[in-house]
């Protein structure tokens, strides 16, 4: 499930890309599949890095040609093990809402980005996320879960205050918002409830097959119901 729009980054051959908080490697695979770049996935969770490596190999095994080079690294977003100005592009998707010290995290993301480079940040959108918090106290109280809800102006200000310029924004994953509301109603840890299981099958089918119908519905509903806010900055 790709959240960001790579075409907004103006990626050139040989560019260095950091996906901070890469999880199981969705944006690493997406960047490597489409660009002759050096893509580095970093995450604090070692098990996610293992899964990311597996997913990258599976991508190739199922016929997905990777044009770019890739690497994976264990890293803390508040103390990144990379030099200043090391990357042409930095991606941080669905991470900032998990970090207690988001100010330090923002400083580090900006530090490792080259002047003229792009930073792409996505966070849960305020309205759909607020509903999740209202429906379930467990949703926001699990270890490693979401510690805050960002309003658009707040997350933009964090990076503008560090010298970045906002270039554009959009919303994504509108058809995923009701899935999380249903999960919160039945209990976020309950993956087997029939409504959850059926909706999950729908989302998996949509991600794998990318049918025109659901792509159209998602696109039409994103401005109103999109679960993720995606922001593009330049240093």
Question: In summary, what is this structure?
Answer:
The chain has helices spanning 26-34, 46-61, 102-111, 126-135, 152-160, 177-186, 194-209, 212-225, and strands at residues 16-20, 38-43, 69-74, 87-93, 113-124, 165-172, 228-234.
Instruction: State the strand order across the main sheet.
Output: 3-2-1-4-5-7-6
Q: What structural class do the secondary elements suggest?
A: alpha/beta
The major beta sheet can be summarized as: 7 strands, mixed
Mind telling me the C-alpha Rg?
17 Å
Mean pLDDT: 95
Topology as a string of helices (H) and strands (E): EHEHEEHEHHEHHHE
Query: What form results from the Cα inertia axes?
Result: globular
What is the helix fraction of residues, given as a range?
40-55%
Low-pLDDT runs of 5+ residues are none
Termini distance? 27 Å
Instruction: List the total number of helices.
Output: 8
Strand content: 15-25%
| Extended strand count | 7
């Amino acid at each position: 499930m790709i959240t960001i729009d790579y075409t907004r980054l103006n990626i050139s051959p040989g560019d260095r890309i950091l996906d901070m908080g890469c999880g199981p490697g969705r944006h690493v695979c997406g960047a490597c599949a489409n660009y002759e770049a050096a893509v580095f996935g970093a995450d604090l969770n070692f098990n996610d890095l293992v899964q990311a490596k597996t997913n990258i190999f599976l991508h190739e095994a199922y016929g997905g040609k990777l044009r770019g080079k890739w690497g994976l690294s264990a890293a803390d977003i508040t103390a990144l093990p990379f030099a200043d100005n090391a990357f042409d592009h930095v991606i941080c998707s669905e991470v900032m809402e998990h970090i207690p010290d988001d100010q330090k995290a923002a400083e580090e993301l900006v530090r490792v980005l080259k002047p003229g480079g792009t930073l792409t940040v996505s966070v849960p959108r305020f309205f759909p996320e607020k509903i999740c918090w209202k429906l379930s106290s467990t949703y926001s109280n699990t270890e490693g879960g979401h510690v805050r809800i960002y309003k658009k102006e707040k997350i933009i200000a964090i990076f503008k205050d560090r010298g970045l310029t906002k270039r554009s924004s959009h919303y994504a994953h509108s058809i995923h918002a009701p899935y999380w509301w249903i999960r919160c109603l039945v209990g976020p840890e309950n993956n087997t409830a029939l409504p959850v299981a059926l909706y999950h099958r729908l989302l998996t089918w949509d991600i794998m097959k990318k049918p025109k119908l659901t792509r159209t519905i998602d696109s039409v509903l994103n401005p109103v119901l999109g679960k993720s806010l995606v922001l593009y900055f330049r240093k």
